[in-house]
């Protein structure tokens, strides 16, 4: 994995008590909560310590790579988002859900992408 971390190859096999991270619901449906760390940019984006997300994967981060920190976790402890330890640089984030599948209906995911676009373009944007 990038930056020297490791991957759980199959959540269900390695952590049998984990919640389902490969949902049977529609891809745009949120199926579980994640807890967001307050000292993270992800918290600044959502302005909440908990949101509901979808989950369409069977792999997860096991050990974090260097210069990364956990920004959010699922109730079972699976890492749901990471950020750069040094937040003074540009946006550096990874998420373990599919916000693109939720963005057409979820205002939080729309805000997530607005932030991403703003950071990439360094310009203020408006999306109706």
Q: Notable features of this structure?
A:
128 residues, alpha+beta, Rossmann fold, five-stranded antiparallel sheet, two-stranded antiparallel sheet, 7 strands, globular, Peptidase_C26
Notes on the structure:
By secondary structure, the protein is of the alpha+beta class. The chain has one domain: 3-Layer(aba) Sandwich (Rossmann fold). Helices cover 23% and strands 22% of the residues. It has a five-stranded antiparallel β-sheet. The protein has a two-stranded antiparallel ribbon with strand order 1-4. The radius of gyration is 15 Å and the shape is globular. The mean pLDDT is 89.
Biggest sheet, spatial arrangement of strands: 3-2-5-6-7
Helix content: 10-25%
Our Rg estimate from Cα atoms comes to 15 Å
Task: Encode the helix/strand succession as letters.
Answer: EHEHEEEEEHH
Quaternary arrangement of the chains shown? Answer: single chain
- CATH architecture name: 3-Layer(aba) Sandwich
Structural class: alpha+beta
List the uncertain runs: none
CATH class: Alpha Beta
N/C terminus separation? 37 Å
- Give a quick account of the main beta sheet: strands, pairing sense, barrel closure: 5 strands, antiparallel
Q: Number of helical segments?
A: 4
- General form: globular
For the secondary structure, the number of strands is 7
Percent range for β-strand residues = 15-25%
Number of domains: 1
Any chance you could write out the topology, listing elements then pairs?
Elements (H helix, E strand, L loop, with lengths): L6 E2 L2 H4 L17 E5 L4 H6 L3 E4 L6 E2 L6 E6 L5 E6 L8 E3 L3 H4 L4 H15 L7
Antiparallel strand pairs: 1-4, 2-3, 2-5, 5-6, 6-7
């Amino acid at each position: 994995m990038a930056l020297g971390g490791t991957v759980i190859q199959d959540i269900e096999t390695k952590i049998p008590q984990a919640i389902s991270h490969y949902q049977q619901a529609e891809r745009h449906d949120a199926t579980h909560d994640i807890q967001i760390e307050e000292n993270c940019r992800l918290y600044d984006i959502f302005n909440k310590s908990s949101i509901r997300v979808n989950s369409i994967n069977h792999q997860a981060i096991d050990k974090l790579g260097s210069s990364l920190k956990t920004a959010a976790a699922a109730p079972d402890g699976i890492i749901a988002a990471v950020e750069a330890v040094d937040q003074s640089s540009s946006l550096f984030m990874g998420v373990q859900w599919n916000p693109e599948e939720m963005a057409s209906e979820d205002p939080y995911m729309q805000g997530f992408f607005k932030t991403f676009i703003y950071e990439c373009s360094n310009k203020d944007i408006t999306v109706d």
